[in-house]
Amino acid sequence: MESVQYHAPQSLEDAVPLLKEARTTPSRILAGGTDLLIQMRAGVKTPEMLIDIKKIPELTQLEMGADQIRLGAAVPSAVMDENAELHQQLPGVVEGMELIGSTQVQGRATPGGNLCNASPAGDGAPAMIVSSGQCVIFGPNGTRTIPVEEVCTAPGRTSLADDELLQEFIFPAPKPGQSDAYLRFIPRNEMDIAVVGVAANITVDASGTCTAAKVALGAIAPTVVIATDIAALLVGTKLDDDTLAAAAEMASGLGSPISDKRGTTEFRHRIAGVLTRRVIKIAAARAGERLQ
Amino acid sequence: MSKTHVTTTINGDAVEYLCEVDQSLLDVLRDTLELTGTKEGCATGDCGACSVSLDGRLVCSCLVLGVEAEGKQIETIEGVANGTELHPIQQKFLENAALQCGICTPGFIVATKALLEKNPDPTEEEARYYLAGNLCRCTGYDKIIRAVLDAAAEMRGAA
Fold first, then answer.
1. CATH number at B4-79
2. Per-position b or e across A259-280, b if 16+ CB within 10 A of its CB
3. Which end of chain B is more exposed for a tag (fewer CB within 10 A), N or C?
4. Which residues of A touch B4 (CB under 8 A)?
5. What is the ipTM for the molecules in this complex?
C-alpha cells in the first residue's frame, strides 16, 4: 500500500478528472471502506488511487418521492435503518442492508459498496433486484442507467468501466398491495456471511391473489439468481401452502452453490427452498397490509 | 509520497496531524496522537475494540482512514470521563466488574455511550444486539450487559 493517492471530490464534476485518471491508474472507489480497507491491508486489492465519494452530495442523499425512491450509493446502512418511511416503502431493501455486520460496520457500510464489492453472498443485492432497483452510473461522458442485476458480472467483478462510479439507486415506489422482504440464513444470530439469502417482492389484490411477483436468491451462484419460473408460478394463486411448497422445491433446484465451512452444497439447496417459502409469506403479508 | 495534512476535532479539541493515506484512523490515534485508550484488536472491523464516534456515528477506527477524518468530529474513550470524574458507564463497568483483561473495555464503553444516546432504556436483548460487534473473550458478556443496563437506569434517573 505504498504511495496511495487519496482524493475526496466535493462534486460529481470534480470527480471527472479523477475518473479519467482512473483509466490508466489502478484505482478504487472508496465508499464505506468496510470491505476495501480490509482487502487493501490483506494485499488483495492494490490500488494506487482512492476516490472517496462520501463528500459528493448526490451520493449521500436519500429522497423519498411519491413515485420513486432515490438512494445515494454512499448512504450508510445506519441512515437507511433510521428512516421510518424507507422501512415502510422498501422493508426488504432495508433488511438486506441492516443485516450486514455490526453497529460499527452499519455506520460505514453502503448499498453502493455492497453491490460493487460483488460478493456472491452480498446481502444488499437480492432485495434491490426484486424491488426493481435501477443504478445510475456516472462517468466522464455523463450517466447511464442499468438494472441492479446488471452490475455484478462475477465474484468481485462489475460491469462498471474503470472511469465510472455508481451514483445512486432509483426504486419505483411500491403500489398499494405490493411489498418486499429479505431473509438469509447464517450459522449464528448476528454478524456472519449469508449461507443463502432470498428476497421476494409480491403484489396481491383484495382477494389475496398474487398479481405480480419477483424472487431472487443470493449465495447459491456466482451472482444473484432471479427466479422467473417461481415468480410465474406464484402469479394467479392465493399463495396457498401447495403453491409455496412447489416454489420451495423449485428454489432448491436453482444455482450451483458451493460447499464451505458455513454449509454444504446440499444444505444450501435445501435452505434455499425453506427461505423462499418463508420470505414469500412475509412479503405477501406486508403487501396485504398495504392494501388498506 | 508526502504525507497528508489533516485538520479534525477530537474530544472537542482542534487537532492537526500528518498521515500517510494507508494509515488507519486507529493508527493515527494511537501512534501519532498517543491517544492509546482506543485499542487494536483484530484490525478487520470484527471485534469493536477500536470503536470511536465519527460525526456522531459509532464506527471501527481501524476501518476509517486517517485522511478521512478531515473536518470531522471524533470522540474517543479519552473524552468519556469529565476530568477525573468517571462517566456513569465507566462507574458501572467498575461496580459490576464488567472487565477482566480490559482490552475490549474502551470499545464497549464508547459503544455503550452511543447506544444510550440513541436508546436510553434498552431491553437486555436490544443491548446485546447493539453491542454484538464488540467482542470480549474474558467476561462471558453477562457482567457487561448488567453494567450497561445499570448505567442506563442511573443515567435515566440522573436526567
1. 3.10.20.30
2. eeebbeeeebbbbbbbbbbbbb
3. C
4. 6
5. 0.94
